[in-house]
Specification:
Blueprint: H1 6-29, E1 39-40, H2 43-47, H3 57-62, E2 69-70, H4 78-114
Antiparallel strand pairs: 1-2
Length: 115
């Protein structure tokens, strides 16, 4: 079960983003491999559908390391993979900024307590 701690939830999101990056990179690396089937990590499967998207039932069960799944169609289109990597990069930036904000908040609380 995912903790209510925002740091833990953000770490889960970062883990999911990293897992998706691995799948997309693998697709590009294997695009000329015969019978290779494209893999992806579905964010909607792991994070979608709840008021707080990081606390869906599946995300609670799967934890931070979802398995990449083969997609229908199979063939790898380099333009699609690069586009998806850009989207993933934006998600990483948002999650990293969220983590930075949480750390800044914790530092502020500690400094107020020391003052």
């Amino acid at each position: 079960m995912i903790s209510n701690n925002p740091v833990t939830r953000t770490l889960y999101a970062l883990d999911l983003i990293a897992e998706r990056q691995k799948a997309l990179s693998s697709n590009l690396a294997n695009m000329d491999t015969p019978n290779y089937r494209r893999k992806d990590v579905s964010f909607s499967q792991y994070l979608g559908g709840a008021a707080n998207s990081l606390e869906t039932t599946l995300a609670q069960k799967m934890g931070p390391s979802p398995v990449s799944v083969e997609t229908e169609g199979g063939r790898v289109n380099p333009a699609t993979e690069l586009s998806e990597m850009q989207k993933n990069s934006i998600l990483f930036t948002v999650a990293a900024r969220r983590m930075t904000s949480l750390i800044t908040e914790m530092k502020s609380v500690i400094n107020v307590g020391n003052g």
